[in-house]
TrEMBL record, chain A:
PANTHER family: MALTOSE-BINDING PERIPLASMIC PROTEIN (PTHR30061), MALTOSE_MALTODEXTRIN-BINDING PERIPLASMIC PROTEIN (PTHR30061:SF50). Pfam families: SBP_bac_1. Belongs to the bacterial solute-binding protein 1 family. This is Sugar ABC transporter substrate-binding protein. Keywords: Signal, Transport. SUPFAM superfamilies: Periplasmic binding protein-like II. It comes from the Bacteria. Coiled coil: none annotated.
From TrEMBL, chain B:
The keyword Transcription regulation does not apply. Pfam families: BPD_transp_1. Signal peptide: none annotated. The keyword Membrane applies. This is Sugar ABC transporter permease. CDD domains: TM_PBP2. SUPFAM superfamilies: MetI-like. Residues 84-304 form the ABC transmembrane type-1 domain.
Length: 419, 315
């Protein structure tokens, strides 16, 4: 039989088409090596060395399921949000949430029963945004917080003390700014992203009140945000740094005298600067109001589309509730995080001295967590307004009025959905 | 029984296959692509239109029909209308500048007697670079805001202060970064199109013009070269406008950060990306925006084609 060129091409095309439709989704069902069902677990990419190996080691140590860890660089929130729409997403995944819409949309499982007896041991500030309708939707892994780093030597050279009010922060930043060094780094966007609601909390306000109303419909809000404009207008802010606020590079390279960053950056700062640095909360922005620091937690959640729901829940319970030695290792051995368990945080030796101890104190005394009802749509509206206030000098009162309008509409929407 | 029939009856599938199996082969070769087009383009398109009539938060199979609510809230949303303005401003910058730059490059390269191929390749090379890579180079090494960025170093020699190119809204320096990166990337490609057009112009026209006393330079360019390049120019402008509509890569990579995107220089696609695919996952609202955008693109393109007389036979 002779094969004509056409037949060959045609067959090739057909075979190619068929094999392209293969079903290699990176997971399969049923245990193959006697370790029980296969689960896939997702993490976002942590910057610190060793974290990936550590989480893989934990997963390997679990003997009731075959857990494969996926380390996902890039836009993690977008990736998980899209993956949750399909069955090929993760079974267990860490999430900076879950968001209210993910909970209301039934995309994640209720994990309340995993907390049996352990609930009181979790940091209540970070557990609150994981709770909706009295049910808990993810297990906090570690507590992260953001705070202000400052160079002690530069401050004392200028004869300044660490700022305790926003006015002082503006003055100090202006004074520390020279031709080569800027006074303060709040992120390349001028602070609208990294600070978020922190200035409002430092003015004694809230993003959303406990009964689900807008928490910053108050003249004090505009006053606080106007100060951020002052920082920008004084040219005290470092802008356009090669790495953004979450990375301490700008601070340790001496591009700025003060920087807003995360607790995770503390080991790197300490290594580079030794004792020549201190930490502070975001200073008080209204008379009588306490300083504020944002705290938050990535939580371990279970996808509602998982093929092995119970096995996935069992794994989460094992790793993030029972195995306290792993939780300790994860929080303290790589980056620098506060354990989500109060009992572990108390025993954590690295957190008992120096700036780390200050940070832990801020997290308990001044910490706030973004409320669950502060949805991405509200955040975008607020951040846009904040950016316009800081960079373009927009009127804070009128900008805030329009934000309040948008946020109340959004709060009505989520309320209606839960009813 | 009819013994009179001599011709064997054609089997139905034979007839379907066409003479010499032509129909069969047509589908064998076109089918996969048509299928791909339907599955990956038309179905998602239709689905998007479907989603735009629902409250579709975090779901692609919504149940909550809301009629035109998504459309009205999108049209009333100042962030969306601002993004359309961003697009208009961007187009107003980028289309004329690319046009002028690539035409001048083409005219210069076309006049070279030696090393023409070399310069043609050199100017074309940036077109092979990825938008993402170029945007990152622009953002991190050329136009970063600290004193050791390239632009700031050069300005520093003249004693100027460091400028945060991407963070300054007054004056809007970020446009300089956005426009130059795209200019660098695409000017070479359009230069090639113009070169091809220039080489099609008959030398006799120039000779005739010279005999008639046309001065070389502006007069010849205005009365011979540009009219002869009309077809090329129309194609170039159309492509430029459509490309500007699709702008996403350089905007996103230059201006986004881990906490989102600033409210300025936010073209429609970037805004819709955050609405539909960001953490908000408001797929219904995002789809409504996409449909509106598609309508605008269609109207503009058709209007433009009409106005330029695209596809009209040249005299």
């Amino acid at each position: 039989m002779t094969i004509s060129r056409r037949t060959l091409l045609g067959t090739g095309a057909a075979v190619g088409l068929l094999s392209a439709c293969g079903s290699n989704t990176g997971r399969d069902d049923g245990g193959s090596d006697g370790k029980g069902p296969k689960l896939s677990q997702w993490y976002h990419q942590y910057g610190e060395d060793g974290t990936e190996q550590a989480v893989k080691r934990y997963a390997d140590a679990y003997d009731k399921a075959d857990v494969s860890v996926q380390w996902r660089p890039g836009n993690y929130d977008e990736q998980t949000a899209a993956a949750l729409l399909t069955k090929s997403g993760p079974d267990v995944f860490e999430v900076n949430g879950p968001t209210l819409d993910q909970i209301q949309g039934g995309q994640v499982l209720d994990l309340t029963d995993l907390f049996d007896g352990a609930k009181d041991d979790f940091n209540p500030v970070v557990l609150a945004p994981k709770t909706y309708d009295g049910r808990i939707w993810s297990v906090p892994q570690v507590v992260d917080m953001q705070l202000l780093y400052y160079r002690k030597s530069l401050l004392s050279d200028a004869g300044r003390k660490p700022p305790t009010t926003l006015d002082e922060l503006v003055d100090t930043a202006r004074e520390l700014t020279t031709k080569k060094v800027k006074g303060l780094f709040l992120g390349n966007d001028g602070g609208s992203g990294a600070l978020g609601g922190t200035p409002l909390y430092a003015a004694g306000l809230q993003l959303v009140t406990d009964d689900g109303k807008v928490g910053f419909d108050d003249p004090a809000a505009a006053v606080a945000l106007a100060h951020l404009r002052d920082l920008y207008e004084d040219k005290s802010l470092l802008l356009g740094a090669p790495s953004d606020w979450s990375d301490p590079s700008a601070f340790v390279q001496g591009l700025t005298a003060m920087q807003w960053s995360g607790l995770w950056a503390l080991p790197a700062v300490k290594k580079a600067l030794g004792d020549d640095f201190g930490v502070a909360a975001f200073p008080s922005a209204a008379p009588g109001a306490k300083p504020a620091v944002p705290v938050g937690a990535y939580g371990a959640a279970v996808s509602a589309r998982s093929a092995h729901k119970q096995a996935a829940k069992d794994f989460v319970k094992w790793l993030w509730i029972e195995k306290t030695d792993y939780q300790r290792d994860f929080a303290l051995s790589y980056g620098f995080h506060i354990p989500a368990r109060l009992s572990l945080a108390k025993k954590a030796a690295p957190l008992t001295e120096g700036p780390a101890a200050d940070a832990v104190r801020f997290s308990t005394e001044n910490g706030y967590a973004e409320p669950l009802r502060w949805t991405p749509a509200s955040r975008v509206a607020y951040q846009d307004a904040l950016s316009r206030i800081i960079k373009s000098g927009a009127n804070p009162e009128s900008e805030l009025r329009s934000v309040v309008r948008k946020v109340s509409a959004e709060l009505d929407r989520v309320k209606k959905k839960s009813a | 029984m009819n013994a009179g029939s001599t011709r064997p009856r054609e089997r139905p599938w034979r007839r379907l296959a066409g003479s010499q199996n032509r129909t069969l082969w047509f589908w064998a070769f076109v089918g996969p692509f048509a299928l791909g087009l339907i599955v990956f383009t038309y179905v998602p398109l239709g689905w998007s239109v479907y989603l735009s009539f629902f409250d579709a938060h975090n779901t692609v199979s919504p149940t909550d029909f809301v009629g035109f609510d998504n459309y009205t809230s999108m049209l009333k949303n100042d962030a969306f209308t601002d993004s359309l303005w961003t697009f208009v401003v961007f187009t107003a910058f980028i289309v004329p500048t690319t046009y002028v730059l690539s035409l001048s490059l083409a005219l210069m390269v076309n006049r070279m007697r030696r090393a023409q191929a070399f310069f043609r390749s050199v100017f074309f090379l940036p077109a092979a670079c990825s938008y993402v890579v170029a945007a990152l180079i622009w953002k991190m090494s050329i136009f970063n805001g600290v004193r050791f960025g390239l632009a700031n170093t050069v300005l520093g020699w003249f004693g100027a202060d460091q400028t945060a190119w991407l963070s300054t809204t007054d004056p809007p320096w970020y446009w300089l970064v956005i426009v130059t990166v795209r200019l660098w990337l695409q000017a070479g490609f359009y230069m090639i199109l113009f070169l091809a057009g220039l080489q099609r112009i008959s030398p006799t026209l120039y000779e005739a013009a010279a005999v008639d006393g046309a001065r070389p330079g502006w007069q010849v360019l205005r009365h011979i070269t540009l009219p002869q390049l009309r077809a090329t120019s129309v194609a170039v402008v159309l492509l430029l406008v459509i490309n500007a509509f699709q702008a996403f890569d350089e905007f996103y990579n230059l201006l986004s950060d881990s906490r989102g995107y600033p409210p300025y220089a936010r073209p429609p696609l970037v805004y819709l990306y955050y609405t539909a695919l960001g953490q908000g996952q408001n797929l219904g609202l995002g789809s409504a925006g996409a449909v509106l955008l598609a309508l605008i693109v269609a109207v503009v393109t058709i209007g433009q084609a009409r106005w330029f007389g695209l596809g009209r036979k040249e005299d």
